[in-house]
Amino acid sequence: MLCLGFQLWLPTTHVAESDYQAVAQLLAAEQQQGDVVLLAPWWTERARIFAPEGLPVVGYQGSDADSLERYPRIWVLAQPHQPNAGMGDFEKAFSPSRTAIGAERRFGNLSLRLYQNGRHRPVVVDATQLVGAGQAQVYLESPDGNRQPCSFTGTAYRCGNGKIVGKEWHEVHFAPYSCVKLEAPGGANRVVVEFTASAADSSSLTAGYIWEYGAYRDGITPTNVTLEVNGQAQSMELPVGDELMHRLEGPALTEGARVRIFLSSQNPSARVVCAVMTGSRRAP
Amino acid sequence: MSEQKATALSPTLSPSGRGSLSRFSSSLSSLTDRRIAWILFFAGLLVLLATEKDIGFGRDESVYFHAAEAHARWFQLLVSSPTAAVKDAAIVQHFEFNHEHPALMKNLFGISYVVLHEKLGLLRPAGAFRFPAFVFAAWMLPLIFGLSRRLFGQGASIFAAVSFLIVPRQFFHSHLACFDVPIATMWVLTVYCFVEALEKPRWWLYTGLAFGAALGAKHNAWFIPVTLVPFILWRGWQLTKHAPEARNLFFGINGVFVFGGLLYGVMVAAMGPQRILSTFEFQSPQLGLFVIVCAAGAWLTWQLRSVHLDAFRTIAPLVAMAILGPIVFYLHWPYLWHHPVDRAAWYLSFHLTHNHYTWYYLGELLRAPPFPLLYVVNLTALTVPASIFVPMVLGFIWVFVRAARNQVTNFEWIVVANAVMSIALISHPNVPHFGGVKHWFPSMPFLAVLAAGSLERGARGLTAWLAPRWKAVTEPRVLALMAVLLCAPAVIATARVYEFGTSAYSEFAGGVPGAASLGMQRQYWANNLTGVLPWLNANAKQGERVYFHENHGGQIRDNQRNGMLRADLVAVNSPNEAELAIYQYHQEFREQEFNIWQVFGTTRPVFGLYLDETPQIVIYRRGHR
Asked: Do A112 and A136 fall into the same domain?
């Protein structure tokens, strides 16, 4: 009888298209610059179809705990009635440092609530944007310091080894990142992204192997990723067989700071990395 | 079945030295049983035919369509020009493609296509290819019913049979021109023949032929003897305990095959596997040994027939399997005719060293062994409707309870052994774990039989409790009501998701959405494309270039030639060449979705198949904002 009840109840958890449209209208009317929509459960991505233009929608395995530090306000669009929705776990991961603004609004099986994001850190330096706009220098550097510039094609940098360095969407451990794609040139050579930064209270470099490359093992070597600010370098290793994003906290950035990001791996096979370097201010 | 009924039947066999093989005398012994069996078969066949057009083409199925058509052309050549057809060049031309699987089902698919589509025009191409698969899936029902009738009443046995087909994933796979349901049917058929052979003449021969056909369907069949040999040896030992001449023959038969196996072992040790293969010819010691062993084994078995009939009926099916299995396997597959050993060796080697495909399980991507030991059991629990899974588990446990009470029959052990075999095999951490549940389908019919026992015991217990209160309560009525209640959730689930069977999850998972939260594989084989084809046909521009992601060219071809996809649409190999991209939602492929975002300049889909709100197929249009 329980099974029968479940099968009869399950269709009642569906979301009517009119409810999604109502949510979309509300979001279009009330959204502010820098808002983001966070999905709960994370897989309810049908909402992407209806999201107003320009309003990012975040939903991936693990997005409950995403700090979403670029965004001052978060619209949580939830389907709490889904089986195994895990709203309790969502609350645990999401709630710290978040403050609800206003009441929850219901649209059929959809629940929408706006939050102030206490984990917000305004991004003032974004290597991905600079690379996408051609405002960085990209080159291959050999151990003797010899540099081979990569030319900007209008959308990305093409290097002498045929590899592309550019602003691209990529997956690292289920999550989408708009990041700088870098490929290790091999041996002691390294690919370098260099730019001049504005002042920021903190900096960080997050990097991980794209897609399944992290899982490769046979004949594969680890990758060294370095963040250098005004000549002071900090490095981290992306191990073989590791599919996660790794984060390195850098120093504060002074106005006009020279920032360089290096990537190298002895064996270049499958060493394709998605790197996000940002400089952030403290939240106001 | 009631205990009273069991004891009323005189045991004709004493395999355990204590009780009968089965609690009922024989399967399908009555006219009513045979009628029920036929009704089950035709009902199954009709349901599958009626729902055929809703089922999309899986990645492998389109490959088998192509191979089947090639096989069919060879059969046409065999009729028109037999001398040319039997030459290796002609055989290779038609059988080389997809020779990692034996030919039986593809032969049938191909012949069916030629007859039912090309000649008679009765079915669309896909329906014609699939028709033999429907026959095998429908045949499963009377086989389960027949096996179950050895233990349980008609009502419970009908439940057992029906319960196999209403499991959403099994119903889905029953439609496909693939091998997973046919091999399950042939596995059950072999066991069915074996059980019959213990009581009836000639069924030892059918057992050998059924095993050979199973070998011709899929490589799972090589494991069927594993479930039967221990039983045969033990029963043979028991039966010949007080018959010295029969005992000697029994030892002799076993000795011949064991000695033959040892000699092969010595050959491999002395010559090495490569030399064994390269010198394994028509006139070679290797083949000579096989012939001698088979001849000696068969002769001794025939001698046993006149000495001890029950012992003969016990071991003859195994001897028939050992001899007829390889012969049928060789004869059914023309690809082996000119190079039997090296091509058979390649085939076996292919499956022994099969790739591991990435698989999403409980939030992790399983890429390589060792895989979780409980994967198979967990996935079974999360995909078989709970109202059927629970009776299966209870029935399984009940056999051990009966064993503790010294009540269990050998037939029940055979059912348990076959229920466990495929699940145990795939559970090994180093065995490839892709493919959802289909790789252990041969276990499911036997679990269905065990579920029938749970239903019968439950009905009996409930009747005993209710009958004193209500006169209208009788055991058949209670059983029928319980069967309906147990089947109803599965029927509803199947009706809701059967076209997208690889996405189906049970109540224990929380259905499809619950499984998404658990982090389970969303789908596989890319057949869910059918869910967006009507939108695509209505909304794509004339001649538009479409990136179909996980669908290969064969699937696109089959969708177009079966009228499911507009013929003017052009499939391209990457989003870079496309205006529309159809992403098949898999966690292991998310990079491809984000690549579409990158190339199309948008993160907003235009349409999708969202099964119980879970993304399955997502369509993007270039530049859509």
From this structure: no
Domain that holds residue A196: 123-280
Hey, of B517, B518, B618, which one would you mutate to test binding to chain A, going by the most A CBs within 10 A of its CB?
A: B517
Domain boundary among the residues A89, A117, A145 is at A117
| Domain co-membership, A146 together with A48 | no
pTM as predicted: 0.92
Contact A77, A47 (CB under 8 A): yes
Choosing among A50, A169, A273, which should be mutated to test the B contact, i.e. which has the most B CBs within 10 A? A169
Asked, as a colleague might, if the bond just before B201 is cis with ω within 30 of 0, I would say no
pLDDT at B27: 58
Say which CATH number the domain at A249 has. Answer: 2.60.120
Residue of B367, B604, B605 lying closest to A215 (CB–CB)? B367
Based on the fold, state whether residues A99 and A142 are members of the same structural domain.
no
- Search chain B and give the residue with CA nearest A217: B368
Q: Which of A3, A14, A51 sits opposite B386 (nearest CB)?
A: A3
Q: Does residue A108 sit in the same domain as residue A195? A: no
The domain boundary residue, chosen from A71, A96, A117: A117
A273 pLDDT band (50/70/90 cuts)? very high
Considering only CB atoms, A6 lies closest to which of B485, B507, B607, namely: B507
pLDDT classification of B10: cutoffs 50, 70, 90: very low
Interface test with A, best of B485, B487, B604 (most A CBs within 10 A): B604
- A199-216 mean pLDDT: 96
Count of helix runs (H) and strand runs (E) in chain A? 5, 19
Task: Provide the 10 A C-beta neighbour count for residue B191.
Answer: 26
Tokens of B520: 């389970």
Cis status, amide bond into B370, omega within 30 of 0: yes
ipTM of the complex: 0.96
Q: What is the residue-wise DSSP string for B195-207?
A: HHHTTSTTHHHHH
- For chain B, the structural domain boundaries read 3-219+309-346, 361-518, 527-621
Asked whether the predicted pLDDT for residue A52 surpasses 90, the reply is: yes
Which residue in B253, B225, B227 sits closest to B239, CA to CA? B253
Residues A274, A134 share a domain: yes
Q: Which of B386, B587, B607 sits opposite A61 (nearest CB)?
A: B587
- Using an 8 Å CB-CB cutoff, list chain A residues near B605: 48-49
A209 shares a domain with A72: no
| Residues in B 511-550 with any Cβ partner in A closer than 8 A | 511, 513-514, 516-519
Measured CA to CA, the distance from residue B331 to residue B67 in angstroms comes to 18
Give the confidence band of A146 by pLDDT, cuts at 50, 70, 90. very high
- A106 and A134 share one domain: no
What residues pair up with A193 in beta bridges, in sequence order?
A138, A261
CB contact under 8 A, B608 and A46: yes
Residues in B touching A2 (Cβ below 8 Å) = 386, 507
